[in-house]
Specification:
GO cellular component, one term: ATP-binding cassette (ABC) transporter complex, substrate-binding subunit-containing
Strand order of the largest sheet: 7-8-9-3-10-11
Radius of gyration: 25 Å
Keywords: ATP-binding, Cell membrane, Membrane, Nucleotide-binding, Translocase, Transport
Largest sheet: 6 strands, mixed
Mean pLDDT: 92
Oligomer: single chain
Protein name: ABC transporter ATP-binding protein
Pfam family, one: TOBE_2
Order of helices and strands: EEEHEEEEHHHEHEHEEHHEEEEEEEEEE
Low-confidence stretches: none
GO molecular function: ABC-type transporter activity; ATP binding; ATP hydrolysis activity
Length: 367
């Protein structure tokens, strides 16, 4: 295994800057994911680590070996970096069998035939394709072809595995199966992994840490739990699936009563947990997940924290309902269990009672 250190990295295409001064430290044996929208610089970062792109400035070290240094004009070619890479497209040789595709990196390294055969068998066994060794690569399904590509990446026992959105071409069921396989491989095969995706589920499921990127800059670095529950700003909250992100005014920072906020365009006041956002801020942004809004169409006794809301729309999702609700001019999205409702489903125009627990409201700095 080997750690990866990216220091003050800069990359531009002509007058278009991808990133400038990028710093990322990947620990030895860690599974780190670069997460962000298209064009944020995550794939370019990965390609710079792989040696498929040459940065303009900065430094990259893999396992203590310097593979790029802009000040010394040093650039180590990809084949000498001891890495494996899995791409979005499978990049298999159509005229070769599964075993021949997997063994190709070893043939380029002139590994002895007996060792090559043994390592190919081991790699195919790890991805549950041992019985497919002699089949043409093109005769396999998309999920199986991606597993062949994965076996090819690990067969040379790389120090670092790089993944460039490897599950994007698979359907939802296969993506779930491949996520489980990648988790199992990371436990079984001692290697450091850097993974690129725009899919928050993949990032949260697979990663030890996540780097959220936007426009070539790092917005937040943290564990999946840290980023999922406590995003650093509205952009991260939105990208990590917070359905409700609204501006609000801080109306009370009383030492005894905690912090209370009023969403813009609303008379409702909510208590919030934590420190209530930036100290002294009068304006903040609130982030709440749709499934954390508690909706009661006909409560016998509304709780003290419940506020009146009007239903704007209802979408039936099977086991769940998605409700658009309005508190004054503030519009929120709620997702509730259909089976938990009694007395019929709410319809557009109904008045309901809405409760949000203070620990479910994330207070962020306004942008």
């Amino acid at each position: 295994m080997a750690g990866v250190t990216i220091s003050s990295l800069a990359k531009a295409y002509g007058d278009s800057t991808v990133f400038d001064g990028l710093d990322i430290e990947v620990e030895d044996g860690e599974f780190l994911t670069l997460l962000g929208p298209s064009g944020c610089g995550k794939t370019t970062t990965l390609r710079c680590v792989a040696g498929l792109e040459q940065p303009n400035e900065g430094r990259i070290d893999i396992g203590g070996d310097n593979v790029f240094d802009g000040t010394k004009n040093r650039f180590v070619q990809p084949q000498h970096r001891k890495i494996g890479m899995v791409f979005q497209n499978y990049a298999l040789w159509p005229h070769l069998s599964v075993a021949q595709n997997v063994g190709y990196p070893l043939r380029m390294q002139r590994v002895r035939r007996s060792e090559l055969r043994s390592r190919v068998e081991e790699a195919l066994s790890l991805v549950s394709l041992a019985d497919y060794a002699e089949r043409p690569a093109t005769a396999l399904s998309g999920g199986q072809q991606q597993r062949v590509a994965l076996a090819r990446a690990i067969v040379s026992r790389p120090r670092v595995l790089l993944y460039d959105e490897p599950l994007s071409n698979l359907d939802a069921k296969l993506r779930g199966q491949m996520r489980n396989l990648l988790l199992r491989l990371h436990r079984l095969v001692p290697t450091t992994s850097v993974y690129v995706t725009h899919d928050q589920v993949e990032a949260i499921t697979l990663s030890d840490r996540i780097v959220v990127m936007r426009d070539g800059a790092i917005e937040q670095i943290g564990t999946p739990r840290e980023i999922y529950t406590r995003p650093a700003n509205p952009f991260v909250a939105d990208f990590l699936g917070f359905d409700n992100i609204v501006d609000a005014e801080v109306v009370d920072r009383g030492a005894g009563s905690g912090v209370r906020v009023r969403p813009s365009g609303s008379d409702a006041v909510f208590a919030v947990g934590g420190d209530g956002g930036p100290a002294g801020a009068e304006r903040v942004t609130l982030a709440v997940r749709a499934d954390r809004l508690l909706v009661d169409p006909r409560p016998e006794r509304p709780g003290p924290a419940a506020v009146r809301a009007t239903v704007g729309y209802v979408v039936y999702l099977g086991d769940e309902l998605e409700l658009g609700v309005r508190i004054g001019e503030t519009r929120l999205t709620a997702r509730i269990s259909a089976s938990a409702l009694t007395g019929g489903l709410p319809v557009q125009g109904d008045e309901v009672w809405l409760t949000i627990a203070e620990e479910d409201i994330v207070v962020l700095p306004s942008e």
